[in-house]
Write a structure and sequence with these properties.
Strand order of the largest sheet: 2-4-5-7-6
Number of helices: 10
Structural class: alpha+beta
Helix content: 55-70%
Strand content: 5-15%
Order of helices and strands: HHHHHHEHEEHEEHHEE
Low-confidence stretches: 1-20, 166-171, 305-313
Radius of gyration: 28 Å
Number of strands: 7
Largest sheet: 5 strands, mixed
Mean pLDDT: 77
Shape: elongated
């Protein structure tokens, strides 16, 4: 599932444009540096001649192709998915294939379109493999180093997310209403009172302790979602609202970043069911298939509080989008939209076994 980076959140457009422009200049600087280095190696005299420029330009052109094939196909498809043996095999194929192509290019083919320059192949296939392998290795390390720097950012975001979880995801307003619901059940001497207290306790325990880990089991995340939905059921009138939670598939042996899905659910409850209007609905679906989850929420748009800062900024969802980009690059597809008074979220995410 490579290339899953299609997001419909408006704020992401400017960010993606800035990232694209930054990467574009980085790539330009890299290839200019490679060109100058090779030009100094290939020059036939103390000064640069026209033939040196042409030779270097022709030499570097095939290297462009195999480098970007490695960066945007083999690394995401094999190296990032921890298929190291397959990646090593394809890496060697790229090195050998690139070297052979360069050898044949200057030994046989170049005279067909540049007959007046009399180019010859100065290097053996083994020497050309050194050139090709060095360039592929350097570009791979540069790409991986960018991911390592991003991991440092993940730690900062995870720390701040733990604090925001208590404030925005399991906020005091939610806790107050939950305690009021428990109090009402206790007055009615409801048999469900101990169960509700236990669910609230599990939610708080999860928020305080499990979010310290970078990954937790998908079963734990699903358990949190079940408890959270059940807590909200206690706060709504079943005759006026329709809350549905549908979970399919086997989550065993799968792990996910803690509280990654909950902000979408909390946002739907906050802006949909909170208004209490008749006919309000909240439908949550989670399907697990072969290491991939398909998660969706549907709710009526409801009436949001204009004084709520999250209503204006969408902080919870935006933070989640950034976490997805940092934790699961090129492994997710997120679609968020609103139509016919229905707000929807669709997330397809590939999890590591």
């Amino acid at each position: 599932m490579t290339g899953f980076r299609n997001m419909s959140i408006n704020e992401s457009g400017l960010t993606d444009l800035i990232i694209f422009r930054t990467r574009w200049w980085q790539h330009q600087v890299f290839w200019v540096a490679v060109f100058l280095i090779l030009l100094n190696i290939f020059k036939t005299s103390s000064t640069f001649e026209k033939i040196d420029l042409i030779y270097t330009l022709i030499f570097i052109t095939p290297l462009l192709g195999i480098t970007y094939l490695n960066l945007y196909y083999f690394i995401p498809r094999y190296l990032r998915r921890e298929k190291y043996l397959l990646y090593a095999l394809f890496f060697l194929v790229l090195v050998g294939g690139g070297a052979l192509f360069l050898y044949l290019l200057f030994d046989r083919w170049i005279d067909l379109f540049l007959p007046n320059y009399y180019f010859i192949s100065y290097y053996s296939i083994g020497q050309l493999m050194i050139y090709t392998g060095s360039l592929l290795l350097l570009s791979t390390l540069l790409k991986l180093s960018r991911s390592w720097f991003m991991l440092l950012r993940i730690e900062k975001i995870t720390t701040s997310h733990q604090l925001k979880s208590l404030q925005s995801q399991i906020n005091p307003h939610f806790l107050l209403n939950s305690l009021q619901s428990i109090y009402a059940l206790s007055l009615e001497k409801s048999d469900r009172t101990p169960e509700v207290i236990l669910k609230l306790s599990e939610i708080l325990k999860y928020t305080l302790y499990e979010t310290e880990h970078p990954k937790i089991s998908l079963e734990q995340e699903i358990g949190l979602i079940r408890d959270y939905v059940e807590m909200y059921r206690l706060r709504t009138d079943p005759d006026r609202t329709d809350i549905n939670l549908d979970i399919k598939g086997d989550p065993k042996n799968l792990h996910i970043a803690p509280m990654l899905l909950l902000p979408f659910i909390e946002n739907s409850f906050k802006h949909g069911l909170r208004s209490g209007q008749k006919g309000a609905f909240m439908h949550i679906r989670l399907k697990v298939t072969s290491g991939t989850i398909e998660f969706s929420t549907r709710n009526n748009t409801g009436v949001s509080d204009p004084l709520d800062p999250d209503h204006r900024k969408g902080i919870g969802i935006e933070n989640t989008r950034q976490r997805l980009e940092l934790l699961y690059p090129e492994k997710y597809d997120l679609q968020i939209g609103e139509a016919n008074e229905t707000f929807s979220v669709n997330l397809k995410l590939e999890l590591n076994q």
